């Protein structure tokens, strides 16, 4: 089942049609593969994670497992939204280099599940500088609206693996005056830094 | 009926490993010169059951080796060969070889044939050498009563297997066939317990048999055939009534059968009838098979997880129930209280399933101590106590290596040579004591010896030598003992292959820390040293103190908390305007402000309005500044890494009664972060 899920995503063009969950974010409509969606739930207060990037709001208890919550608005630099009772979290499974992870994504609202004919999916134009659009699978139109299909593995999976590796460092680097200091005390990860110096 | 035997292999291996442990334990207790018959019997039974099992499963190498072993043991059992140190060593080596063979079979690796055949050769040499000159007279004595030219005895054997006999890999047909090879056998089947065809489980045995065995065969020999089915059947062996009375019933291998038994065989019937209940019992206790089942750890973990979820849901319901009003609210609350009680019991029972007595770890030490003492030319007595103290299987598996290190250290460094001990006015034999006990919600494991104790001046000199301590620093005794836990520290005058490379104590401490425990040293010069490891009962649950910082709640593991206190501003000194320190029992501790470290908005930034929790980790202490202390509770540890990643200063998360998530603080990690920041 997971294997077929992957194929479904990667070999999108070869399939005739696919089901996509669409949601609204800052006035735009986005879509993700329905097979990746675990559940849709209302907003509840999250527990903050220290040293996390700003768009990672914190963690939630999802029936016993601890799931990080990402605000897509902030990820796309659309400004912070108010979190109210009608704010929606879409829980998705994301494939990262470290394996499958469940993650919650905060969006403005969930719209619909639509069937998309694969021939309708057009590649995204190479506009964004520096590969900013590489997490976009393609664009499609549904009744005059354009839907941006997201590759959540690229969008969030990459973030996640970066977070896991450098949660502490991002925080330290952001502090003025605190830089990676090769003269740090010997215990811990100081050794490779000393080599570099 | 054919049964796929491979499904029983794993059970056979596990039982064999356990049986070998029992055999090793019995061997170590065996007194050279005056062996206790019951111990030899235990050892013999192990060898015999492994032989039987391996033959059934087609592990011919093991079967052949155990056969030689059994022959030797039989000589010991019958007393025709004395238990010498050489024999005892040989038997211990056999245990090792058998273990290696079983492991190889289990992993379907080729076995070390050379080692096996070498040892088998040694075994046979011993049998041949000790036996050859004696063999003729020794064999003749017991043979006489049997060889009397009278009609051979007829034995009536009633064999009523329990239903599980077949499932344990026993096949009655095999047993009968083997018996048939020894004597003339007539078999009568008793099928009256056979259920209707529709209800028959093909792997259950519903049949019973009555066998008439005629020929030159002793009761003992018949019993041996059924030995492997022992415990899985009712077995009654008696002389057929047709036999003329007055003859000694069971000529055993012992020259004189009468004194070897408890009751004199006055009438032929009384002896065999009286004996069967006694024998299976002793086998059972020797092999530790007391109505238990084997369950894979994953299944138990699954159960643990589900129970953990239930506990959280129950806590949520309780909280909700408190808010209800109305005529039936009282009833609801009563039900919720009952639910809570039942939940707690359920949780405890499930946790107990994972608990094993620490004797599983302790049992390896008698052998290790014996070998080490032998090699180092020291006399050492090992004392074990509290072996029945139970702790979590995961903890148990990980505590073995640190304990081995500690015991080795005690023997190598702690206990002096017999001459030196004599000069100090101590008994020649040193004592190493392993003790386990419950202390509060924790387990304390103590390794102590009555050797020379830690040499403070040498430790200090070494530390100065290595630049770990400044030349003029004054250290307390406790600080000096702490030095031995530093990486690369060793005071052994010469490096032996046992210890002294300095890769011991720091690893020990790290392993213990990984288990959420701590290790402490005490020592008295000339009187000995004592290492105390304190461990949590389980890894899945931690005793925690909830603390509030702003709107967030964090859990501080109780084991790392030293004290909580409120500071007045005057007690705090600022070093270079940044680092805040305060005096605590003669030490200066730095303050970690949790709100600034974790970037949350606190209720207060004034030290005198909040609380400072003094915590200890990595042998260092710091004060954590928090808003408030909440309650103490046991929390179920959840992984943050499953869906997110590692966070510095956080060891995991848990779910609180209201369903929200709280982070569990990693105290050594926090101290590390703080020291990095201070250094920057």
What does this structure look like?
The complex is a heterodimer of chains A (197) and B (680). Chain A has 197 residues and is an alpha+beta fold. Chain A has helices spanning 2-10, 72-75, 152-174, 190-196, and strands spanning 17-25, 28-33, 37-42, 56-62, 65-71, 88-96, 99-107, 109-117, 136-142, 145-150. Chain A has a single domain, classed as Beta Barrel (OB fold (Dihydrolipoamide Acetyltransferase, E2P)), CATH 2.40.50. In chain A, a hairpin with a 2-residue loop joins β4 and β5. The longest helix of chain A is centred in the C-terminal third of the chain and has 23 residues, at 152-174. Chain B is of the alpha+beta class. Chain B folds into 5 domains: 5-142, Four Helix Bundle (Hemerythrin (Met), subunit A) (Up-down Bundle), CATH 1.20.120; 154-255 and 267-274, Alpha-Beta Plaits (2-Layer Sandwich), CATH 3.30.70; 297-354; 357-536, 2-Layer Sandwich (Heat Shock Protein 90), CATH 3.30.565.10; 541-679, Beta Barrel (OB fold (Dihydrolipoamide Acetyltransferase, E2P)). In chain B, strands 14-18-19-17-16-15 form a 6-stranded mixed β-sheet. Chain B has a 5-stranded mixed β-sheet with strand order 6-8-9-11-10. In chain B, α1 runs antiparallel to α2 (37-57), α4 packs across α5 (113-147) and α17 (456-465) packs across α18 (477-483). At the A-B interface, β4, β5, β7 and α3 of A face α11, β21, β22 and α21 of B.
């Amino acid at each position: 089942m997971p294997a077929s899920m992957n194929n479904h995503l990667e070999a999108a063009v070869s399939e005739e049609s696919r089901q996509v969950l669409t949601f609204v974010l800052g006035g735009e409509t986005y879509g993700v593969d329905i097979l990746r969606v675990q559940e849709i739930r209302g907003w509840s207060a999250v527990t903050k994670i220290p040293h996390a990037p700003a768009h990672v709001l914190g963690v939630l208890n999802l029936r016993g497992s601890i799931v990080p919550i990402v605000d897509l608005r902030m990820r796309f630099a659309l400004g912070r939204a108010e979190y109210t009772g009608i704010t929606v979290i879409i829980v998705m499974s994301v494939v990262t280099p470290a394996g499958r992870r469940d993650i919650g994504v905060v969006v403005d609202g969930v719209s619909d599940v639509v069937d998309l004919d694969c021939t309708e999916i057009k590649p995204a134009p190479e506009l964004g500088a520096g590969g900013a659009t590489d997490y976009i699978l393609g664009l499609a139109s549904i009744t005059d609206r354009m839907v941006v299909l997201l590759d959540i593995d690229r969008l969030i999976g990459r973030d996640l693996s970066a977070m896991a590796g450098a949660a502490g460092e991002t925080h330290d680097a952001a502090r003025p005056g605190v830089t990676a200091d090769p003269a740090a005390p010997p215990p811990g990860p100081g050794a490779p830094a000393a080599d570099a110096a | 009926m054919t049964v796929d035997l491979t499904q029983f292999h794993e059970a056979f291996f596990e039982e064999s490993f356990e049986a070998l442990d029992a055999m090793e334990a019995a061997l170590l207790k065996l007194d050279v010169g005056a062996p206790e018959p019951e111990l030899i019997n235990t050892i013999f039974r192990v060898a015999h059951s492994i032989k039987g099992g391996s033959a059934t499963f087609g592990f011919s190498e093991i079967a052949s080796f155990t056969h030689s072993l059994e022959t030797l043991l039989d000589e010991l059992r019958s007393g025709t060969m004395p238990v010498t140190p050489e024999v005892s060593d040989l038997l211990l080596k056999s245990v090792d070889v058998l273990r290696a063979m079983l492991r190889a079979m289990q992993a379907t690796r080729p076995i070390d044939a050379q080692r096996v055949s070498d040892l088998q050769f040694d075994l046979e040499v011993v049998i041949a050498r000790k036996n050859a000159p004696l063999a003729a007279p020794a064999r003749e004595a017991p043979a006489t009563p049997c060889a009397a030219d009278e009609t051979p005895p007829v034995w009536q054997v009633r064999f009523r297997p329990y239903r599980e006999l077949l499932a344990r890999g026993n096949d009655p047909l095999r047993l009968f066939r083997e018996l048939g090879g020894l004597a003339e056998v007539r078999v009568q089947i008793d099928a009256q317990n056979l259920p209707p065809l529709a209800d028959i489980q093909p792997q259950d045995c519903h049949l019973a048999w009555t066998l008439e065995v005629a020929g030159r065969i002793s009761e003992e020999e018949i019993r041996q055939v059924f030995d492997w089915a022992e415990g899985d059947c009712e077995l009654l062996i008696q002389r057929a009534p047709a036999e003329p009375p007055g003859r000694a019933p069971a000529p055993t291998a012992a020259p004189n059968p009468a004194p070897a038994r408890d009751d004199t065989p006055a009438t032929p019937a009384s002896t065999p009838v009286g004996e069967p209940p006694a024998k299976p019992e002793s086998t059972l206790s020797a092999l530790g098979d007391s109505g238990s089942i084997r369950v894979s750890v994953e299944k138990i973990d699954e159960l643990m997880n589900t129970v953990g979820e239930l506990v959280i849901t129950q806590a949520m319901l309780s909280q909700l129930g408190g808010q209800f009003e109305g005529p039936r609210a009282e009833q609801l609350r009563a039900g919720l209280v009952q639910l809570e009680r039942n939940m707690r019991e359920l949780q405890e029972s499930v946790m107990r399933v994972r608990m094993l007595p620490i004797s599983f770890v302790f049992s390896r030490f008698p052998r290790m101590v014996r070998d080490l003492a032998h090699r180092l030319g020291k006399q050492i007595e090992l004392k074990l106590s509290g072996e029945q103290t139970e702790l979590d299987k995961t903890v148990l598996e990980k505590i073995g290596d640190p304990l081995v290190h500690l015991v080795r250290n005690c023997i190598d460094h702690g206990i002096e040579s017999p001459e030196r001990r004599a000069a100090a006015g101590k008994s020649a034999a040193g004592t190493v004591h392993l003790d386990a006990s419950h202390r509060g919600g924790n387990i304390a494991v103590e390794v102590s010896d009555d050797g020379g104790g830690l040499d403070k001046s040498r430790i200090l000199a070494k530390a100065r030598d290595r630049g770990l301590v400044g030349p003029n620093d004054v250290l307390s005794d406790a600080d000096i003992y702490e030095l031995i836990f530093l990486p690369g520290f060793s005071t052994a005058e010469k490096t032996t292959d046992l210890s002294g490379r300095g890769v011991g104590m720091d690893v020990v401490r790290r392993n213990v820390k990984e288990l959420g425990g701590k290790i402490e040293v005490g020592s008295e010069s000339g009187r000995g040293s004592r290492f105390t490891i304190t461990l949590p009962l389980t890894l899945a649950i931690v005793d925690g103190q909830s603390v509030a910082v702003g709107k967030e709640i964090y859990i501080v593991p109780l084991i790392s908390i030293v004290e909580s206190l409120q500071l007045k501003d005057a007690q705090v000194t600022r070093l270079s305007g940044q680092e805040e320190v305060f005096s605590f029992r003669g030490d200066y501790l730095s303050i970690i402000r949790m709100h600034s470290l974790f970037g949350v908005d606190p209720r207060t930034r004034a030290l005198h309005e909040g609380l400072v929790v003094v915590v200890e980790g990595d042998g260092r202490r710091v004060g954590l500044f928090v808003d408030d202390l909440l309650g103490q509770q046991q929390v179920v540890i959840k992984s943050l890494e499953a869906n997110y990643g590692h966070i510095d200063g956080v060891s995991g998360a848990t779910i609180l009664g209201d369903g929200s998530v709280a982070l569990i603080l990693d105290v050594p990690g926090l101290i590390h972060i703080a020291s990095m920041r201070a250094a920057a």
